[in-house]
Amino acid sequence: MRSRRIELTCAVWVRAIHHLESAELTAAENEKLYGKCYRTHGHHYHIQVTIAGSVDPVTGLVVSRDAFQALLQREVVDRYDARDLNKLFPVTSCEALAVRLHAELAPQITSTQLGYALGATWSNIELVRISIRETKKNYFESLPASAPATSL
Amino acid sequence: MTILQATKAKNSSAIIARRVNFCAAHRYEQEAWSVERNRSVFGACYNENGHGHNYVVEAFVEGPIDQVTGMIADVIDIDRILKAIAAPLDHRFLNLDVAEFRDVIPTTENLALYFHRKVATALAEKHPSLRLHKLLLLESDEIWAEVWS
Questions:
Q1: Per-residue pLDDT tens for A113-143?
Q2: Distance from C-alpha of A40 to C-alpha of B105, rounded to nearest angstrom
Q3: For residue A66, what pLDDT band results from cuts at 50, 70 and 90?
């Protein structure tokens, strides 16, 4: 089969608590702005990490499944599952989480990081987007240019 | 302005997507490699007796909205095309039963490329006004591949 660039997505689940709150606002203002989201609550986030790459003709893979899933386990699940996100980040809106995860994972989604020790010719792997389904109704997606946003 | 008038005025195109399912067994093995190397690259996917998935194929089809019917295509036509392509893979051991995958490892990526090629060809033959925009192949809710045209 001809080698062409395709996208591969691996998804993980994260159960975490958070609430929406702005340090710039008073308690009354926060309550008025964010409503029920100002109260501490939790979500079962479905976090989808999409990479793009060429299919390696020898293995038929864009990337090692085990390496990709291990990276997501280590960098997403182990860090954020069963945590209070507000203790980790100043802003925990889902769009901010998507952009933050994009910035955190982008440097690690590389041929070197994911192809190590395998000897296969992984080429030009890059992170395309982070998609987060917060609830059945709410879905968020980072854009390709999601730059490291240290303030989030 | 009615919907039909709107489509006539703009000669609108749009995308529709249709899903089909199939269930199959497969195994990842590069025959040129040693057991150790296969094991280190493919992990459990290298297990001798294979394993199975409930695959989902979703074709995103782009085309002009027909001015008479208000549709891009009858989704049943798209469904027939997808089912005809998926049927030879359904309830099969892909490495053994499907000629195309005797020499090509039936990874999620290669299955997505396989469906992309077959669906694009079938659309070109049967519905020249339609174009395959994207082919999505889900191995599970945790892993899927997308091929963009």
A1: 565 444 444 557 889 999 999 999 999 999 8
A2: 48
A3: confident
CA distance A109 to A125: 7
Q: Which two tokens stand for residue A142?
A: 């980072």
User: Cα separation of A50 and A36, whole Å?
Assistant: 31
* C-alpha angle A95-A74-A4 in degrees, rounded to nearest 5: 75
Using a 10 angstrom Cβ sphere, with 0-12 exposed, 13-18 middle and 19 or more buried, the burial of residue A102 is: buried
Give pLDDT tens digits for A21-58: 999 999 999 999 999 999 999 999 999 999 998 888 88
Q: Does B144 touch chain A (CB under 8 A)?
A: yes
The helix-helix angle for B108-126 and B75-86 (nearest 10°) equals 130
Contact check, Cβ <8 Å, B30/A59? yes
Contacting A residues, span 60-119, partner chain B, CB-CB under 8 Å: 60-62, 64-66, 117-119
Q: Closest Cα partner for A119 from A51, A58, A54, A52? A: A58
Which residues of B are identified as catalytic?
Answer: 45, 91, 139
- In this predicted structure, what is the pLDDT of residue A5? 86
**Of A85, A112, A83, A115, residue with least CA distance to A100:** A85
Single-letter code of the amino acid located at A87: K
pTM of the model: 0.87
DSSP output for chain A: ----EEEEEEEEEEEEEE----TTS-HHHHHHHHGGGGS-EEEEEEEEEEEEEEPPTTTS-SS-HHHHHHHHIIIIIHHHTTEEGGGT-S---HHHHHHHHHHHHGGG-SHHHHHTTT-------EEEEEEEE-SSS-EEE--TT----TT-
Residue B57 backbone phi and psi in degrees, to 5: -115, 125
Residue of B111, B88, B115, B106 whose CA lies nearest to B45: B106
